[in-house]
Amino acid sequence: MTDASNHPTEAEDADDSAALTDGIHVVVDALRTHGVENIYGVVGIPITDLARLAQKSGIRFIGFRHESDAGHAAAAAGFLTQRPGICLTVSAPGFLNGLVALANATTNCFPMVQISGSSERHLVDLQRGDYEEMDQLAAARQFCKAAYRVSRAEDIGRGLARAMRTAISGRPGGVYLDIPAAVLGEVLDAEKAAATVWPLVDPAPRQIPEATAVDRAIDLLATAERPLVVLGKGAAYAQADDAIRDFIETTGVPYVPMSMAKGLLPDDHPQSAATARSLALKRADVVMLVGARLNWLLGHGDAPQWSPDAKFIQVDIEAAEMDSNQPIAAPLVGDIGSVMDALVERSKPGQITVADQWRQELAGKSQQNVARMAKTLEAAKTAHPMKFLGALQAIRDVLAENPEAYIVNEGANALDKARNTIGMQVPRHRLDSGTWGVMGIGMGYAIAAAVETGKPVIAVEGDSAFGFSGIELETICRYNLPIVTVVLNNSGVYRGDEASTTSDPAPTLLKARHDLMIQAFGGKGYQATTPAEVETMLREALASGKPALIDAVIDPSDGTESGNIAHLNPKGISVS
Ligand code: ADP
Ligand code: TZD
Hints:
Layout: H1 10-18, E1 20-22, H2 23-33, E2 38-41, H3 48-56, E3 60-63, H4 67-81, E4 85-89, H5 92-108, E5 112-118, H6 121-124, H7 136-141, E6 146-149, H8 156-168, E7 174-180, H9 181-185, E8 187-189, H10 190-194, H11 211-223, E9 227-231, H12 233-237, H13 241-251, E10 255-257, H14 277-283, E11 286-290, E12 311-316, E13 328-333, H15 336-346, H16 356-382, H17 388-401, E14 406-410, H18 413-421, E15 430-432, H19 442-453, E16 457-462, H20 463-469, H21 473-478, E17 483-489, H22 514-520, E18 524-528, H23 531-544, E19 548-553
Parallel strand pairs: 2-3, 2-4, 4-5, 5-7, 6-7, 9-10, 9-11, 11-12, 12-13, 14-15, 14-16, 16-17, 17-19, 18-19
Antiparallel strand pairs: 1-8
Helix pairs in contact: 2-3, 2-8, 4-5, 4-19, 11-15, 13-15, 16-17, 17-18, 17-23
Bound molecules: adenosine-5'-diphosphate (ADP) and ligand TZD.
C-alpha cells in the first residue's frame, strides 16, 4: 500500500525492513551453513560488524594482534580438522599481513580461506587513492591455490562455496576470497538472499586409485630387498591412521616419519627407523612416499643421501607431484586412506616381506646411534648452564605424562633438537615450521590447537622464533587458553655468543626475559635455569590449565648456526 504521494507507508517500511538483509548477514549465514565454528582474525574497516555478527550467531571469533598469526591459526585449524580454517582481515595492509600465512598454508597443503574486506572497486581500479587501496585479488593470486572475488551480494553464497570447495578438495591449500566493502553493505531481499547460500555435498570426495596402479606398487614392493616407507604430513592430514598402521604392520616394512607425521604410529614403534634415518634413506632400494614430497627436506631424492638406484612409489592426491624430482616407478594417485586400504586388500598374504638382514642392519645402526645419543643426553641433564637437550628432556618427560597435549615447535636448533628428543605417541599432535621452515607460526598454531581441540598445548620455541608472534601471548591470556610456551632462550638467532665487531650488537644477538612479557597480560611467568626446574614448572603450568610461559635459560654457546641446515648458507668470501 502506498500513500497518495506514492511513498511507502510506515507500516510498509517496517515490513520491508523485516524482509531485508545485507552482505554481512549473508556472509555469516554462509559460514554457518558450511559449519564454521571459529574465525581467526583482526577487525577494522570494513569487517568489524562481520566479526560482531559472527560472534552473535554462535561462531567463535578469536581476535588476534596481527593477521599473520590469525592466518597461521586458520591454517593449523585446517590441518587439524580437515575443514578449511577461516582467517578474516581488513583491506590492504591487513590483507598483506595475512598473505604470508595463506602462502605458507598453501605450501604446506593445509586448507584455509582468507576472507578480506577490500576498498571501493571504482576507486581502486582507477588508482584514485582510496583508504587502504590495493588490487588484492591480483596480489593474492600467486600466493595461494585460488583467489576469488565476490562483486555482488547475491554471489556471496556462491563465492564461499567455491572457496571452501577449492581449499579442501584434491590437494588442500589456501584460498583467498575478496569481499569489497560495498558488497558487505549491499542490502537485499532476505528471502532471496537465503536461497543463494548452499552447503557442500561431499566436499573432499575419496579418490580411489586404479587397480593396475595398486598392483604395480605391490609388485615393486614385493621385489624389494630393502623397502622403506616415508610418512609425511599429508599422511597425518589424511586422518587414515588405521589404514596406514594396518599396511605398515601387515607388511612389516620399516618406516621413517617426517616431523609432522611423528605419532601416526608411536615413535617407539618397533618398525620405526627414525633412529637409523640416514642409513635407511641411503640403503633403501624401494621407497614408498606416503603424503611426503621429494623436496629439499628429503634431499630431492638425490644421491648420496639416497641410493642412486632407489625406485620410488609415491602415494599422493596430486598427480602433478609425481616425477617432480625423481622418476616415480609406481605412482599411486588417490587419497591416502583409499590407497592404503587398496594396498592391503590387493596384496596377497606374504607377498610383501622384509628380509631379516635389512631389519638387522637398521636395528644395529639404531642401537649404535641411540647409545651415542644416550651419553649426550645424560651429560645434558646435569650441564650448567642448561643445554637445549637438558630442557628438552624435561619437556619430553612431562609430555609422556600428558600424551593428549599438542606440541608446537619452531626455531633452528630448538626445532631440530626438539624433533629428535620429544617422542610423539598420538597422530597430528606435532605442528611445526613445516615445508618453508618459517618462523612465526608458534603462537597462531598453538592458539588454533587449543581452540579447536580444547586440549593443552606446549609451544617449544627458539627465542628468536618466539619473537615473531610473541605479542599473541596477550590473545592467549585474553581467551584464557591452556597454552604453556617454553622459550629455549640462548640469547640469539641460532647461538647467543657471537662477538660484536662494532658498537652495535652482532646480527644474531638477542636479549630478553620472556617470562616478564606474559605477566603484563596476566599470565604466569617462570624462569628456569635447570632441567629439573623446567620439569616442575611445566608440570605445574599444565596442571593449572592456564596460560603460562617458561623462559628456559640456555647456554648461549649451545647450538649451531642455522641448526641442521647450515649447508644452505651461501659460501662466498668469508665475512669475518
Ligand atoms: P612432509 O613435509 O611431511 O614430507 P609434504 O608437505 O611434503 O610432507 O607432503 C604432503 C603431501 O601430501 C602433498 O604432496 C599433498 O598433495 C599430499 N596430500 C595431502 N593430503 C592428502 C590426502 N588426503 N591424500 C593423499 N595425499 C595427500
Ligand atoms: N624469517 C622467517 C619468517 N623465517 C625464517 N626461517 C627466518 C626469518 C630465518 N630464521 C631461521 O631459519 S631460524 C631463525 C630465523 C630467524 C631463528 C633461529 O633462532 P631461534 O632458535 O632462537 O629461534 P635456536 O634454537 O636458537 O637456533
